[in-house]
Amino acid sequence: MANNLLKGKKGIIFGALDENSIAWKTAQHCYAEGAELVLTNAPIALRMGAINKLAEETKAPVIAADVTSNEDIENLFNKSLEHFGGGVDFILHSVGMSLNVRKGVHYTQNNYEFTHKGFDISSLSLHRILAAAYKLDAINEWGSVVALTYIAAQRIFPDYNDMADNKAILESIARNFGYHYGLKKHVRVNTISQSPTRTTAGSGVKGFDAFISYAEKMSPLGNADADACADYCVALFSDLTKMVTMQNLFHDGGFSFTGVSQAIIEDIQKLGGE
Fold it and tell me: Which candidate, 103, 176, 189, 259, has a CA 20 to 30 Å from the CA of 1?
């Protein structure tokens, strides 16, 4: 049930790829809560055409932007400000890519050209977006920026590869810019560390299905799905969280603070024949 938590607010959603993506769900939930939106993704992603369905549903224009291009990002903000007739109140950064993961390159043998490309898209893009917004004064007073991350930024998950490094830097950028933008215009910047989620991007990680099952058994509440994450984003975009900033917020059903669960112990005992 919608509560008009975002009534009158305007936002930009980065990274809605298809109906499985958290950005897609977040756009739907924000629209249901009364927000006006602009949708954006890389030109190559837009050529797939799926986002046009979301644009029609949420009555949002789609503006292409390569997040590794300062020019594209500034163009996105300028067109968004023109469309809205003023600044934006929230931004979702849901962008990430690792060529090393896609190509099956082991972490100890990373192709550094792949690493640089993945870093530029997955981490530095948040800095570019916030720097452009800061320069253009594009985010309104008490605005909110959320970037999606994963617990591999703090703990080793071998097959997450260099995306773990990217997420660690992403979280650091959020903290740093949260300080500077907080001083400038009370804009808050947070990251959401989400459960493993069945998205197009997430499914590319080796052993993903097995890990989802493991996380489900480890988490007292079970894994948080994309819809639940969208609700959490809405809460962080709303005025109910105006004093929350520079935080990495775990949205994982309790996985992050569970040492071991009874379900996992029982599975191990079964394997050991005890």
Answer: 189
